[in-house]
Amino acid sequence: MASISRKVAFIGATGNLGSHLLRALTGAGHAVTVIQRKESTTPTPLGVKTEKVNLTNFDDLVSVFKGHEVYLNATPFPSLATEKVIIDAAVAASVKRIVPSEFSTNMDTPLSRKLPHVKGKTEIREYLESHIAKTSASWTSINNGPFFEMCLKYGALGPNMAQKTAVFHDGGDKYIGASTLPDIAAALVKILDPAHFEETANQAVYLYSAAVSERSLTDLVSKVTGIDFGTVEDGRITNLSVDQIISEAEKKLAAGDKSGMQAFYFKMMYGDGYGGTDFKKFSWNERLGLRVMSEKDIEALIADTARELGVM
């Protein structure tokens, strides 16, 4: 089936992920309108249509959405309080497909939906699931696990190249699916293709670029860069208990301190019953024709990141 150009209204197009999504959409021939707050001063790429609008005004939003087939959001911390009026306006303007800002690890287990770091995303998903069924619109969410390049750069999945240290969680042996930003963008393009548009309606689409554990990734980084991270046994690699860091994060949160919020990501990835280690069971990679990185591909990404960090 031949690909077609769709008109996409896009909020969050200038962020780390959003810029990759925008590039992939325009590269695939889709007509994108970047929607920004009226007061925004963030520049958008030359040649891309931009509309500035009051994101709380229903009528203004309906006017902007008219003629668009897809509404895409890639803002990093969405909330239903601000998103509901935008979704309602998109539906009122006859938008066919809504792609919310999910881009998480697993939103389809009862345990994961209770985690505080995805509260806004959970509320939006549940609103879409309950509300969109009553309309002519549909939704598709994209879930990709952690952003692979960013985790490598900042040491969030075991090895920290810049500091030449490594941290494991619950032993570091659990495998999860991580995705590169270009691969997430490729998945979005596949979803909008006529070959997959209907089958992805009202579905959570899961993908992964690479299956990695903290221990296996540390070994690969050591192989590529020559960094000796040591071992848990010699005390040079810290092994943290996920339950312990969650307990500490919950105490902070109860006191109004959100500085421990990142701990909940590790619970979502590694906790039993949260679905992070079930990524292959949920994966749409084969159905959408998405790649899975080989060990050589991962090593190449490690080398690129190491050069960027100046450790190679």
Would you mind describing this structure in some detail?
This is NAD(P)-binding protein. This protein is of the alpha/beta class and 312 residues long. The protein has two domains: 7-145 and 179-206, Rossmann fold (3-Layer(aba) Sandwich), CATH 3.40.50; 148-177 and 210-277 and 291-309, Alpha-Beta Complex (UDP-galactose 4-epimerase, domain 1). The chain is built from 13 helices and twelve strands. The strands form three sheets. The chain has a seven-stranded parallel beta sheet, with helices on both faces. Strands 7-8-12 form a three-stranded mixed beta sheet. The chain has a two-stranded antiparallel sheet with strand order 9-11. Helix 1 links the parallel strand 1 and strand 2. Helix 1 crosses helix 7 (181-192). The chain is globular and about 65 Å long. 41% of the residues are buried.
**What would the CATH topology of the largest domain be?**
Rossmann fold
General shape:
globular
Rg, Cα atoms, Å: 20 Å
Strand line-up of the largest beta sheet: 3-2-1-4-5-6-10
Task: Name the helicity range.
Answer: 40-55%
The quaternary structure here is: single chain
Which architecture of the largest domain would the CATH scheme give at its second level? 3-Layer(aba) Sandwich
Q: What's the level 1 CATH class of the largest domain?
A: Alpha Beta
Whole-number mean pLDDT: 97
Instruction: Report the CATH superfamily of the largest domain.
Output: NAD(P)-binding Rossmann-like Domain
What's the β-strand tally?
12
Organism: Hypoxylon rubiginosum
Protein name: NAD(P)-binding protein
